[in-house]
Each structure stands twice: as C-alpha cells, then as structure tokens.
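Entry 12.
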Amino acid sequence: MSVKTRVLIADDHTIVASGVKAILDSSNDFNTLGVVSDGVEALEFIEKNKVDIVLMDINMPNMNGIECTKKLKEKWPDIKIIILTMYNRKQFIRELFEVGADGCVLKNNSGTELILAIERVQSGKTYFDQLNDFVDAPKRMKEFKLGEREIEIIELITEGETSKEIAARLYISEHTVKTHRKNIFRKVGVNDADALVNWAMNQKLI
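Predicted 3D structure (tokens):
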C-alpha cells in the first residue's frame, strides 16, 4: 500500500477550498489533512502536524500567502508549496521565486492540472507550466505614466487590500505604499480607493 501525500489547504474562500478538497479526495493518492484560512493558522498547523505539500492562496487575512511561504520555507524547507492564485501578472512571478514557492496554479485550472502540479512538485520538480498564461500589465496603464510598482499597487487596491496589507505583501513600508497611492491618485485624477477601482473598471484595466 503506497503512502498518501499529506496535503494542507490554506485558503480563506470556503467555496474554493471545498472545490480543491473535493479534487484531492477523488484520488487515492492524497490525504487532505485540513483547511486553514490564513497564514498564521497554516504555520500553527504545521508546527503540530507532518505535512508534505501546502496549497497556498495569496490573499488571506492576518498573514498572506507570500509571507507565509517565506516563513514556512525558512523553517521547513522540505515542505513543498504550490501557490493557488487568480493573480496572473508577470511581476508576481518574481515574488514566487524569491520566497521559494515550488509551483503555481491559476484558480481557473482543471482538477487534472492541479493533480499534475502536486505530483510533479512531490517528485522534486517545480510546476510553473502556466507562466505563458501570465500577462504584462495592460498597455493603457502605461499611457498614464504609471510605473510597474504603481500598477502592482493598483491591482492590489482593486482586490481590496489595505495599505498595511499591501506593504506586507510587497515587503515595503506602509509609508511607501501611501506615497505610491497619492501619486497614483494624482496621475489618474481620483481622490480615493473607491474612485480608483471605478476608474480601473471603466478603463477596462481590471
């Protein structure tokens, strides 16, 4: 009898987590140990349980997936981490490599692809097959003379992240984020985050 791969799901979206668990449970090769809703819970779970692979969402409360991956890899480098995300921007890939993620799967993937990613990562390889599906920032953003970091911050703002959360995600100070926000508002002619989101939607940039 083969030993099942022990998998932890870290995702605060119940529907997504349930879907991922259903995919894993349909195979006899995996043992889904549990579902946690943020990075802090993931680290606490791993302290007490033997885990082979973590399927990690990015945007979670308390501690996001990037920060959790970094901390996890520093303490348990043998645990494999596959990032689950809807965030398909090329600049995001740099962060994944920097924190030591072993793979990345877009949330609109098929169950077959997720299983393939897990099997490949568990065998000691990496899984970044969807890199060709990742795109550069929309050209129209560049028409407003927005820098790459500003574009990144706009995307995070549209996802509902606060300045503090963005700072933690990008490993920069909250003051730096607020400075970027002011510059972004000035360049696109808005006064607050809600107006920025509406602007981005009207421009079909998100």
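Annotation: The chain has a mean pLDDT of 86. DSSP finds ten helices and five strands in the chain.
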